[in-house]
Amino acid sequence: MSCVELLSVALTLASQLVVELVSSDHQDPAVVACLVQWGALVCSCCGEDQPVEVKLIVAKVLVTCSSSLMTNPHLPLGFPATVSLWRSLFTLLQDEDQDVRDSASDFTSRVPAHLLSKDVPGVSMCPPAALDLGVELLCGTFELWGQLGAGFLALTQWLMGEEDGNDEEEEEEADPASCLDEEDFLFEKGELNLWAEPLQWVKLLHRHLCSLIVKLEQNKGTGTVDSDQVHQIQTQARAKVLISQQALNRLPALPQFSCTREHARLTLRHHRAELVLDVLDRFKLTSTFF
After folding, report:
1. Most buried one in 10, 16, 241, 254, CB count within 10 A?
2. Closest CA to 45 of 115, 99, 100
3. pTM
4. pLDDT at 182 (0 to 100)
């Protein structure tokens, strides 16, 4: 049996055990810790570097656990781990492999009926529709959990992007020479995905965040927003706007043709940060904390 097959079997069995533990209402701290570790394992198996076979198993696991864990009003995994599972599901819904996307989209058939709008059928959908519905459901569960404030911050961080802390240094050191020799790029779907499809995800997040701000205003008792975190995110976004614009200015003429890859990467990062600032400005206009 290969390593991939062993991992797939282990994930499946562990997930079945997790569902049973949650159903039996275990409150033992050691059990809760194991549940969180399981969640971290699942999330680690959704990256682009993982084999398709592994991501298909994870998609099946998330679909199976969507009603018992991801929409559970009691948050058995805790807020951060549960939100991470949702993020993993959304990552799979945007995977380059069609089978992975289709498998992940089956979660819509497992959503509890009371969480769905009357005009939304509880059936499988195409991945883009499932992604939109998933973010809408997550925003609804934020309210169910009394975590609108924490949810707003989590989605704002997603909108900013999950790059590592060396990105600013990378942008400052952007080399125009790296724009050369990109003949193969024009025919690589994976690289084109850097701009077109992530842009749709960014726009979707921005739209749902704007709706979430309205909910925050209407339901002020369901979770406050940490003002220090808002200021921190705003500072980061302003820095990203400045740094990415400076990097874009250093690119050669007509960068969208001569530096397609680098131009797309920097433009997306700049757009993300600008939308974050827009969201925070909208939030401040409706908040009594600023």
Report:
1. 241
2. 100
3. 0.86
4. 47
> Do 190 and 244 belong together in one domain?
yes
Higher-pLDDT residue of 15, 119: 15
**Residue given tokens 């599901």 in the structure block:** 89
Q: Are residues 114 and 179 in the same domain?
A: no
Residues 154 and 72 in one domain: no
The number of distinct structural domains making up the chain is: 2
List pLDDT tens digits, range 68-114: 889 999 888 889 999 999 999 999 999 999 999 999 999 998 888 88
The DSSP annotation for 205-227 comes to HHHHHHHHHHHHHH-TTS----H
Domain presence at residue 30? yes
Same domain as 163, residue 98: no
Tens digits of per-residue pLDDT, 144-183? 999 999 999 999 999 999 654 445 444 444 555 556 454 4
With respect to residue 35, please indicate whether it lies within any of the assigned structural domains: yes
> Is there a single domain that holds both residue 289 and residue 170?
yes
**Spatial distance between the Cα atoms of 87 and 105, rounded to a whole number of angstroms:** 13
Cβ-based neighbours of 212, under 8 Å, separated by 6 or more: 139, 142, 148, 151, 152, 155
Arithmetic mean of pLDDT over the chain:
84
